[in-house]
């Protein structure tokens, strides 16, 4: 969360933004809020929009929601950048923009700053992007940004590219959210909120109101391409002469190839997200129904009889952001993100722990198999501790076999991890010593047999 005690601290956006080319000009847009006490009296979902502002040959507006844009964000302010719908130009044009929001302090320095975000704006599809929970009103008022009932909002905008579409469009103006941290979140009610229509007249800021949350757009549906040859309820494979015709593939099996891609897109766009996770200073938006469908732990947390009263914002203190990001990727796509060998080595132990914690059996098995192939002198004892703590029997046996090998045992037992093993899993030390002695005895008997 942006902090008044650390003016230079930036919010970390859920996905890293691409840096703008030094040759691409940036434009600073500003919005003056001159009657803050009156502004904060408006209701949740009601925003104040700036006059039209120019950047990159396009017209924009900053929209400020004093009491949050959605239900569940009433204690925060929401800030959005919107491509102006009343300005001249090609309506069906994708405009890729790098932007960030800044709240200057009383000394003209930066008091709060969002992370840089790259988003695509389109008047007919998605014309607004921003931060649903940029900062709490309490933090804003304590920061000194508001002086004499006035404060200023700044948005740094860089138009990276524009491209005209040539395909039919469906109007969806739901903003994607790079979510900052709330202090006391409520239950958010996802809704497709269309940006308000403009009067087309520049001038004083005016109020815009979001429609009721019940006005939801129909979800988009990914159709199976006609070329796939699907007909009826099954897909017949090509068969050699005499091959039994009973070999059929269910449509459900075929459609499984589309599901990971579609859910991965849902995770990336964050459309309809209704829960935020704070992990190591980063915020990740997700969907409770998807998490609950994949993990019985999440299901119990969100919908079980012992669920917390408020599950729209969850802080996880004992996990790093890289591990949680990979965990979410697996939950949505049933696969891990692309990682090189070094990245895998850095995260595999943590992912095994996370998989066991959230009862993701498939991920746990995958991580256990990977760790079995990575046992070496420097990590054997630490991996053995991990295997014992998470009941990974195959991994435990792999560690035993490696450590008990006469070529490895002395070198492994000379590492600093021996003390860690003794403290973490004292019961396993006797078992390990027995394995080593048995292995040495077998090796010794083999040598005697060779002498005879």
UniProtKB/TrEMBL annotation:
Pathway the protein takes part in: Protein modification; protein ubiquitination
Chain positions covered by the region annotation Disordered: 1-24, 166-221
Superkingdom of this protein's organism: Eukaryota
SUPFAM superfamilies in UniProt: POZ domain, TRAF domain-like
CDD domains: MATH
Protein name in UniProt: Uncharacterized protein
Source organism of this protein record: Urochloa decumbens
Residue span, MATH domain: 26-157
Domain BTB: 273-340
Entry's family note: Belongs to the Tdpoz family.
């Amino acid at each position: 969360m942006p902090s008044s005690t650390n003016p230079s601290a930036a919010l970390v956006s859920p996905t890293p933004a691409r840096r703008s080319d030094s040759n691409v000009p940036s434009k600073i847009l500003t919005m003056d809020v001159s009657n803050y006490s009156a502004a904060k009296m408006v209701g949740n979902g009601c925003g104040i929009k700036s006059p039209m502002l120019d950047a990159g040959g396009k017209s924009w507006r900053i929209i400020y929601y004093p009491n949050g844009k959605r239900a569940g964000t009433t204690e925060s302010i929401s800030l959005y950048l919107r491509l102006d719908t009343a300005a001249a130009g090609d309506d069906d044009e994708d405009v890729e923009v790098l932007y960030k929001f800044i709240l200057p302090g009383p000394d003209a320095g930066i008091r709060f700053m969002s992370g840089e975000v790259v988003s695509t704006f389109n008047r007919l599809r998605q014309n607004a992007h921003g931060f649903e929970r940029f900062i709490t009103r309490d933090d804003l008022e304590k920061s000194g940004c508001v002086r004499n009932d006035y404060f200023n909002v700044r948005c740094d905008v860089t138009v990276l590219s524009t491209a005209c579409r040539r395909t039919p469009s469906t109007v969806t103006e739901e903003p994607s959210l790079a979510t900052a941290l709330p202090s006391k979140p409520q239950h958010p009610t996802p809704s497709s909120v269309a940006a308000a229509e403009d009067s087309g007249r520049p001038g004083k800021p005016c109020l815009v109101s979001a429609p009721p949350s019940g006005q939801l757009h129909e979800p988009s549906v990914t159709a199976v391409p006609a070329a796939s040859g699907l007909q009826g309820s099954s897909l017949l494979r090509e068969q050699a002469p005499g091959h039994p015709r009973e070999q059929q593939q269910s449509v459900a099996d075929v459609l499984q190839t589309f599901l990971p891609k579609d859910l991965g897109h849902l995770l990336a766009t964050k459309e309809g997200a209704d829960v935020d996770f704070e992990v190591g200073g980063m915020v990740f938006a997700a969907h409770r129904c998807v998490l609950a469908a994949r993990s019985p732990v999440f299901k119990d947390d969100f919908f079980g009889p012992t669920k917390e009263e408020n599950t729209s914002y969850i802080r996880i203190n004992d996990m790093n952001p890289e591990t949680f990001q990979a965990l979410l990727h697996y939950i949505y796509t049933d696969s891990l993100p692309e990682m090189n060998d070094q990245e895998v080595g850095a995260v595999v132990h943590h992912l095994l722990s996370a998989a066991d914690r959230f009862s993701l059996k498939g991920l746990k098995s995958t991580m256990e198999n990977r760790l079995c192939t990575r046992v070496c002198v420097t990590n054997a004892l630490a991996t053995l501790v991990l295997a014992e703590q998470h009941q990974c029997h195959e991994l435990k046996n792999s560690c035993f076999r490696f450590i008990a090998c006469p070529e490895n045992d002395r070198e492994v037992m000379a590492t600093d991890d021996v003390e860690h093993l003794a403290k973490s899993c004292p019961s396993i030390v006797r078992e390990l010593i027995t394995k080593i002695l048995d292995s040495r005895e077998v090796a010794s008997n083999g040598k005697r047999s060779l002498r005879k």
